[in-house]
Write a structure and sequence with these properties.
The protein is 48% helix and 6% strand. Helix 10 packs across helix 11 and helix 16 packs across helix 17. The protein starts with 20 loop residues before the first helix and ends in a 10-residue tail after the last helix.
């Protein structure tokens, strides 16, 4: 029997949001901390000859330029708003003058920027990347591997799910990877040292370490305990495990004696010389509080080179543009090359400017919202604050605030803090006072620290104690905060 088939053509309208190359560049630079921005700028200087490191001209050089090259104010006098001895002749337009040059020149002649030391130790990332470089991988697999390594937390675990990583690769790296490809590269990383690196959960981390042991009957029992009874093991439900696995008490005790030797945080075990989380932190912001309570904010851009368009390239492009009518094919190709490089350089300069403006707006909003803390340094003065609060004050998108606060640090008179430190949910007491959840967690931890370890408080008892202190929380809320503080249940605190 013949089967009739037909093709039907339909037309649908679909709205798709896409990011321009300039927007993608701006997003990438926004997420970089100061040290990585410095490396990125140096790489761009090497890659694009139309971009060069700007040098402040001497006083004699200023008089060699024609008057029309000076930036002037409304009265026709040289405009010194851009800093001492800075002429517009070194830039195509005023927009080309980098913001960090303007900020640097706000200092007095005798004032020197503070040098903040940086550790020369090999980083966590570099150590794993060295192992990745020794693998026989395609360029695409190597790029996937580098991104996965960069996504590991300080414990060496991968907390993001595969779908989220695939989305990030598509947006930030322009890589369209399948779940199978990501899983394959991740399995390669999980074979790196130390054992357990790249695991997506504590259970997987322990299983990876057990797999590397020599085969033995005890090894199989260890594997079964973690693989089949992980939840019971963490809750110390010994009887349930004996019943499920049909093993003796001695076999269980021997297996547990080996399991407690495993490292649940393989990343932190790499030692001070190569521990990523032990490297000295380079703050992105410097907030200084004077005795009268005045707060000043600056970006820590002392090691980031100043950027400007190459005068040689722009002059050649202008010359080609003026002679456009009488150009050969070679000349047109040369003009196209020049234009591409100049446009790329200008886009990079604009992206750096945009990054700095966004960072300053975000940090200033945080200072405004948490001013008592920056004046006194008392953690209890931190008020509840979420991303939306900062976004509204800085007139930016919530996702932008999230990117800024993700990996940035601020140096204050009271220490160096990650920007995430200033964010917390709020809670309203019976008296109507709004407190930070951080304060409630502090009280909760204080209760646990001073409890009788032979008879620790249950979540219900902790909720009762907090209620007596004026914080009527539900038992499940107390349990949630306890888990966030990594405090085990009462049975495991004995």
């Amino acid at each position: 029997m013949a089967i009739n088939s037909s093709q039907v053509q339909t037309q649908t309208q679909q709205q798709v949001q896409t990011l321009s190359p300039q927007q993608i560049l701006a997003v990438k630079l926004l997420e970089l901390p100061t040290v990585e921005l410095e490396e990125r700028v140096h790489a761009e200087l090497l890659d694009n000859p139309a971009l060069e490191e700007g040098k402040e001209p001497s006083g004699d050089d200023l008089h060699e330029d024609e008057g029309e090259d000076y930036a002037t104010d409304q009265d026709g006098e040289p405009n010194t708003d851009f800093g001492e001895d800075l002429s517009l002749g070194d830039y195509r337009t005023e927009d080309d003058i980098p913001d960090y040059k303007l900020q640097e020149n706000n200092r007095s002649r005798d004032e020197k920027p503070e040098d903040i030391p940086f550790s020369d130790n090999v980083s966590f990332y570099e150590t794993l990347k060295e192992q990745l470089d020794m693998q026989d991988l395609t360029p695409e697999e190597k790029q996937l591997g580098e991104y996965l390594i960069g996504s590991l937390d300080d414990d060496g675990l991968l907390r993001k799910n595969i779908d989220a990583i695939i989305d990030e690769l598509a947006i930030y790296q322009g890589i369209n990877a399948t779940p199978e490809e990501v899983e394959h590269v991740l399995s390669i990383i999980q074979d790196f040292d130390p054992a357990g690196i790249g695991a997506r959960s504590l259970q997987e981390c322990l299983l990876l370490q057990i797999k590397r042991k020599e085969d033995s009957p005890l090894k199989q029992i260890e594997y079964d305990i973690i693989d089949k009874c992980c939840d019971d093991f963490t809750k110390k439900n010994k009887d349930k495990i004996l019943q499920k696995l049909n093993i003796t008490e001695k076999q269980y005790d021997d297996a547990v004696a080996e399991l407690v030797k495993l490292n649940p945080r393989p990343g932190s075990s790499m030692g001070e010389a190569i521990g990523k989380n032990l490297q000295q932190i380079i703050p992105d912001f410097i907030v200084e509080t004077e005795d009268d309570g005045t707060i000043s904010l600056s970006l820590n851009n002392h090691n980031v080179p100043e950027l400007r368009l190459s005068r040689e390239f722009t002059d050649m492009l202008d010359e080609h543009t003026r002679n456009k009518a009488n150009q050969s094919k070679e000349s047109k190709d040369a003009m196209l090359f020049l234009k591409q490089k100049v446009d790329a350089a200008q886009n990079f300069i604009n992206a750096v400017k945009q990054r700095q403006q966004t960072l300053m707006s975000t940090m200033q909003a945080i200072i405004d919202l948490q001013r008592p803390f920056f004046q006194e340094g008392d953690e209890s003065l931190l008020r509840p604050m979420i991303l939306k609060d900062v976004a509204e004050r800085a007139h930016l998108d919530v996702s932008t605030i999230s990117r800024v606060s993700n990996s940035k640090y601020v140096q204050t008179n009271f220490g160096i803090y990650p920007l995430k430190f200033f964010f917390s949910d709020g809670y309203t007491t019976e008296s109507g006072e709004e407190l930070s959840v951080r304060e409630i967690k502090r009280l909760l931890k204080e209760c646990v620290d001073h409890e009788d370890k032979s008879s620790p408080y249950t979540d219900d008892e902790l909720a009762t104690i907090l209620k007596e202190k004026g914080y009527p929380l539900a038992r499940r809320t107390v349990a949630k905060y306890r888990q966030q503080l990594n405090i085990p249940v009462a049975r495991l605190r004995r």
